[in-house]
Amino acid sequence: MIDPVIFLQLFLVFLIIGLFTFGGGYAMLSLIQTQVVSAHSWLTESAFTDIVAISQMTPGPVGINCATYVGYEVARSAGGSHIVGILGSMTATVAVVLPSFLIVLTIVRFYTKFKDNKIFEGVMGWLRPAVVGLIGAAAVILMINVSWSGPSPDVSVVADNFPDWTSWALFAAATIASLFFKVGPIPIIIAGGVLGLLIY
């Protein structure tokens, strides 16, 4: 029997993530990773990376997709059935969307009044670099696994989160195809899936 407290924990964790995330889904990934992998140990680093990959391939915002998958996996890992996993997905998804929904609903009527306000412009000016930093942190988290519990409290252990050189080659090929040959994301995703199936 699954402990119902897990749903409360899922709701609170993703409510906080939704409340303090600026800049969309990719900026959200580092917060989700911190909570579900480091703070609560609900998922391993490898499982989280797989969930992010699936979240990027499925339609919709990557942060919300990630919350949906994490909610399902956490509820199932806690001993729940498929239906309970779906309830976990719904809990995490509603929680992560709720703050944005309420905030936008509240400020949308006042935006036209405040958009030229100097204080509002100043806040937005400070948030933009922070958003870039959060998106960059998400990219680094997906590439390397940093453990702060090394041989001593002052030593961190950095491990490659890509399993082998083939993964790095696929990553490089996808980057080159996107940047230099302007290949769209859908062909890259399909090619990556086919090559991954053949190689692994």
- Poorly predicted sequence stretches spanning 5 or more consecutive residues: 152-156
The string of secondary-structure elements, in order, is HHHHHHHEEHH
How much of the sequence is in beta strands? under 5%
Cα distance, first to last residue?
Answer: 36 Å
Structural features:
single chain, 200 residues, mainly alpha, 4% strand
Describe the structure.
The chain has 200 residues and is mainly α. The chain has a domain at 5-118. It is 72% helix and 4% strand. A two-stranded antiparallel ribbon has the order 1-2. Helix 1 packs antiparallel against helix 2 (25-39) and helix 1 (5-19) runs antiparallel to helix 4. The protein is globular and about 55 Å long. The two termini are 36 Å apart. Mean pLDDT is 82; it is low at 152-156.
